[in-house]
Design a protein that fits this description.
The protein is built from 3 helices and no strands. The chain is elongated.
């Protein structure tokens, strides 16, 4: 499969779309929060990987929700 000019334009247009851009920024923010929190929890408690994965899933969803709410201009509460 070759990536033609129109296909690359569609991908670039999708990345510049405000709705997609907010989601991409939200996912990046949530991944950063996930990485920081998982490393901190691992260092403080020494938990195994399975509990860290479960905790990390909740942190990721929570951080993504907060970031998307803030991007819409809503109060974080």
């Amino acid at each position: 499969m070759s990536c033609g000019v129109s296909e690359s334009f569609e991908v670039e247009h999708l990345l510049m779309d405000p709705a997609t851009s907010q989601l991409r920024d939200g996912v990046f923010f949530a991944l950063c929060a996930l990485a920081i929190s998982v490393v901190t929890i691992k260092m403080l408690t020494g938990l195994a990987l399975l509990p860290l994965a479960v905790i990390g899933m909740f942190i990721f969803v929570f951080a993504l929700g907060i970031k998307l709410r803030l991007d819409r201009g809503a109060s974080p509460r």
